[in-house]
Amino acid sequence: DSPVTAADQLAEEIILRHLAAHAPGIPVVAEEQVAAGVVPVVSGEFFLVDPLDGTKEFVHRRGDFTVNIALIRDAAPVLGVVYAPATGQLFVGHVGGAGAARATLDPRAPVAAALTPIRVRTPPDAGVTVVASRSHRTPQTDAYLAAYRVTDLVSVGSSLKFCLVAAADADLYPRLGPTMEWDTAAGQAVLVAAGGRVLGPDAQPLRYGKPQFRNPWFVASGAFVPHALAA
Q: 216: number of CA atoms within 13 Å, CB side?
């Protein structure tokens, strides 16, 4: 019962058109198409698209909604772009390649903005800064965080949570609730390219191309191994 707006649908149409032009032949799994029953067969390589992640933030005119585009190869995100149109924040990640970077990008500007490399940090001795979902906080999340010394807890919508960890503005993002693969793939690519990790309940990296494209619980972290999730 999550909200869908005209912006979700129109943005997805634009993204699909450009992906078809620039990467013909690579299947695209896109949120609104899947909702309409259009689900391509995927195997080794495919795109995951969320045209508007954080629709509730968009509806309530908060700026932390994002556009997420990721390339999956052999069940792992290898390229990812997260863009927050309202604030101009752009994050990119190339796993095993150029690494991760950020920029402030005005979509009306005639030239691209310069990218600044980003890297995760080792948590300060005082404790960890945690980012959590504004709309999907759960009692399980609070129970998990009880094992940490938390110095700051920031509520942020959308995949920007991954990006704050990637940019060393936070240390930990636990998600003990439902998500879909298009919600997480681009953010995971940015975080992993920045030196972080995203681990499921089996303490292994979150994988993609699963049945119905549903994710298990996961925890994303910077330059340390997080506590394991309860089985």
A: 16
d(CA 201, CA 186): 20
pTM: 0.93
What pLDDT, in 10s, does the model give residues 45-101?
999 999 998 756 665 666 678 999 999 999 999 999 999 988 899 999 999 999 999
Helix (H, G, I), strand (E, B) or coil at 93: strand
Backbone angles phi, psi at 53, to 5 degrees: -90, 125
List residues bridging with 80 in a β-sheet.
70, 93
Q: Which amino acid is present at 96?
A: G
Share of the chain residues as helix, strand and coil, in percent rounded to the nearest 5: 25, 30, 45
Neighbour-count burial for 173-185, b at 16+ CB within 10 Å, e otherwise? bbbbeebbbbbbb
Element at 19 (helix H, strand E): helix 6-22
Reply yes or no on whether the pLDDT at 191 is more than 80.
yes
